[in-house]
Amino acid sequence: MRPESKGRPRILAGIDEAGLGPMLGPLTLGLSAFRVPADGEGIDAADLWDRLKGAVAPEAKRGEERLIVADSKAVFQRTALGWRRLESTALAFLKLAHPTRPANLFEYLTPGLTRPTAPWYAELAATLPTETPTDRIDAHRDRLEEALHSQDIRLVEACISVVPASELNRSFRLTQSKSQTAWIQAAHLLAQVFENYGSEGVHVIVDRQGARKRYAPLLERDFPGHSVATLQESDLRSDYWVEGPLGVMEVSFQVGAENQSMPTALASCFAKYARELSMDAFNRYFEGKQAGLKGTAGYVTDGRR
What we know:
Elements lengths: L10 E8 L8 E9 L11 H5 L4 E2 L9 E2 L3 H4 L4 H18 L36 H17 L3 E10 L1 H11 L2 H20 L4 E6 L8 H7 L4 E7 L3 E8 L2 E8 L7 H28 L10 H4 L2
Parallel strand pairs: 1-6, 3-4, 6-9
Antiparallel strand pairs: 1-2, 2-5, 7-8, 8-9
Helix pairs in contact: 3-4, 3-8
């Protein structure tokens, strides 16, 4: 798929979102990226599950003690166990990537983002984790660090974007399109990875939502001065090669990417964790205003209340 003369990318990254469909709460996005060794065989995004199998698993099985890195819908259910699984996965990676930062949601925001100012964000948990024992998170982090080191792989990006409802609604009004709004936010993360690691060669796999198949015009608009070559466009996957002053980047927009790319699955967990923390704060704020008010996940089925 990629031009053979360019070699294989050293940086494997994934982007995913949560909250585009619900009627309440923010849109959240996650980004993860790994630097892999420049060996002759090459490593792709699906290989990372096997390379890191000492610390991570691709599905939740009974008795599984490793971190579950999968589509967040498979990791998280609204149970104590489901929350601990999601929190363990998200925080083990975030704490490994940012060992000197205090463990709270705002410290893991994408660089350059303004913190949300709506009053309910004051109800965010001051420290994380919220339910999972800290020593359990730290043990997972240590096993993860060992697994990465043993494979000469490094976690180079782990961050979250929170787009508050007010900003999201403004964007919807301007673009008249949820998919365009989602692209604007994802493009910020693409640019972050490309600017930081394009010289090494990057492959980013983005979970594809909606019916859009053609992304070349968007990439040409948002990365001026770079050439954009279409590698393939199909019902399930669209791939592009972007090359220019920042370096080289292959971008794949794939249906169900969380099942094919560990970095995208991890990004899905980051986005879901941020979304759930934000909705917990939202519910605490309004429950404080009206006793007995039942919390909401923000979806249409219960959000209309």
